[in-house]
Amino acid sequence: MRYLGIDYGTKRIGLAISDEGGTLAFPYAILENSKSSLGEIKTICAHEAVETIIIGESMDYKGEPNIVKKEIDKFIVELRKVLGIPIIEEREFLSTQQARFYQMKRKRVDDSAAAIILQSYLDRKNNRPILETL
C-alpha cells in the first residue's frame, strides 16, 4: 500500500510518498498552495497509486489546534470530495523545524517535513520504534 504524506502550509504544501510496502517515507514534491493544488495532488495520487493520505495535524505549544489547523480542516474536506480515499491526520509538532535541522543547505524543506510526518505514521502503524528506522 502506498501512502502520500502532506505537510500543509498556507504558502506551500509539502508532499512525501511511501514505498509500495508502506514502510519508508521519501520527500516527493513541494507545491505552491493555490487553487490548482487539489488537482495536482489528485494527479499525483493517480500516478503513484496512492491509497491513503496522511496529513499533519498542526497544534500549538499547549497541544491545542492552532490557526493553521482550521485551514487544514477545510483542505481535508476538499481533498475528500476530490479523491475519495482515506485521509488520516497524524499529530505533528515542529516538523518543519526538524526538517530544517536535517536539511540545513536547502531553502525549502516542506517535502522533508511531509516525510517526517509520514514516517511517524508508518512507524506507529507498523509498530516500529522511531529509533529503529534511523
UniProtKB/TrEMBL annotation:
<protein>
    <recommendedName>
        <fullName>Putative pre-16S rRNA nuclease</fullName>
        <ecNumber>3.1.-.-</ecNumber>
    </recommendedName>
</protein>
<keyword id="KW-0963">Cytoplasm</keyword>
<dbReference type="InterPro" id="IPR012337">
    <property type="entry name" value="RNaseH-like_sf"/>
</dbReference>
<dbReference type="GO" id="GO:0016788">
    <property type="term" value="F:hydrolase activity, acting on ester bonds"/>
</dbReference>
<keyword id="KW-0378">Hydrolase</keyword>
<dbReference type="InterPro" id="IPR037027">
    <property type="entry name" value="YqgF/RNaseH-like_dom_sf"/>
</dbReference>
<comment type="similarity">
    <text>Belongs to the YqgF HJR family.</text>
</comment>
<keyword id="KW-0690">Ribosome biogenesis</keyword>
<dbReference type="GO" id="GO:0000967">
    <property type="term" value="P:rRNA 5'-end processing"/>
</dbReference>
<dbReference type="GO" id="GO:0005829">
    <property type="term" value="C:cytosol"/>
</dbReference>
<feature type="domain" description="YqgF/RNase H-like">
    <location>
        <begin position="1"/>
        <end position="99"/>
    </location>
</feature>
<dbReference type="InterPro" id="IPR005227">
    <property type="entry name" value="YqgF"/>
</dbReference>
<dbReference type="InterPro" id="IPR006641">
    <property type="entry name" value="YqgF/RNaseH-like_dom"/>
</dbReference>
<keyword id="KW-0540">Nuclease</keyword>
<dbReference type="Pfam" id="PF03652">
    <property type="entry name" value="RuvX"/>
</dbReference>
<dbReference type="GO" id="GO:0004518">
    <property type="term" value="F:nuclease activity"/>
</dbReference>
<comment type="function">
    <text>Could be a nuclease involved in processing of the 5'-end of pre-16S rRNA.</text>
</comment>
